[in-house]
Structures are given as C-alpha cells and as structure tokens.
Design a protein that fits this description.
Helices cover 52% and strands 18% of the residues. By secondary structure, it is of the alpha+beta class. It has a two-stranded antiparallel ribbon with strand order 1-2. Its EC number is 4.2.1.104.
Length: 147
C-alpha cells in the first residue's frame, strides 16, 4: 500500500474521531510535531507504534505495516510549494536564508544544522494585535569534516 493512501486514511480517521495530533502522539509517547510528520508520510514508526496508531484509528493491517516502511522524504510537496502556508516558509528561506546561514556560520563555524538529529515545536502565543505562531527548529550542529 502506498504511503499517500495510508495518509488519506489517517486523515479521514483523525477527522471522524475528532482527534488532534497531540492525542495520537500521546498514544505512542512522541511529540505532536514528530507524530504529524511521520503520519503524513515523512517518517517511520516502529512496529509497536504503528500497531498502537492502527488500533486508535481503526487502520487495517496493510496500512499499519505501511507505517513501518522507510519513506522517500521530501517528495510530498511540489517545488516551489503552492499551498500558501507552506509557501510562506519557502519565502522565509528565500528572504532570510542567507542571513540564517551567515549567522549559523558566525556562531558555530563551517557546518550545517542537522535535519536528522532534530526537533521541532509549534506553539500559539496570544497577542492582542493577533495571535502569534512560534516555530522552533532545533537541530544539532554538524561541522564539515576535514580529511
């Protein structure tokens, strides 16, 4: 079974059951951001995690098994992205990317921020001028190796 089909089933079950990502995450003891990423087809669950998600969402065994398959990451969104919210992040990197890169190099040296040893958090902060979206990207610094 293709991951896109499994994702569709997950989203349908999530909607029908009135669940939030945090509800599903609590069942497998993971963060809501990681859980959403994995169940939207960009991560891999263990057999135990996929069984728990399957039980919660009423997924069939074939869909449960598909959640344990290593996905082709980064293939679900066209480039440039067309969804307005995803495009804003693309735009942020187009505009602020060079500054982010230079600041990281200035503070850490020549290297990159890992997207493997990585955590993400999204919070809502109330503000009288309009609520704020706080996105925290937390990746390990990986210096370039010289040999």
């Amino acid at each position: 079974m293709e991951r896109a089909e499994v994702t569709g089933r997950i989203m349908e079950a999530k909607r029908k059951l009135g669940l939030k990502w945090i509800d599903i995450a609590s069942v497998i003891d993971r963060s809501e951001a990681w859980t959403a990423t994995a169940l939207l087809g960009q991560g891999t669950l263990t057999n135990e995690e996929s069984a728990k998600v399957g039980d919660l969402l009423g997924l069939d065994p074939e869909a449960v098994a598909a959640l344990t398959v290593i996905p082709y990451r980064g293939t679900t969104v066209p480039m440039p992205p067309t969804d307005p919210l995803i495009y804003r992040f693309y735009e942020i990197l187009l505009v602020y990317g060079p500054a982010i890169k230079d600041l990281i190099h200035e503070k850490f040296g020549d290297g990159i921020m890992s997207a493997i040893d990585y955590e993400m958090d999204i919070q809502r902060v109330e503000d009288p001028k309009g609520d704020r979206v706080v996105v925290t990207l937390n990746g390990k610094f990986l210096p370039y190796k010289k040999w």
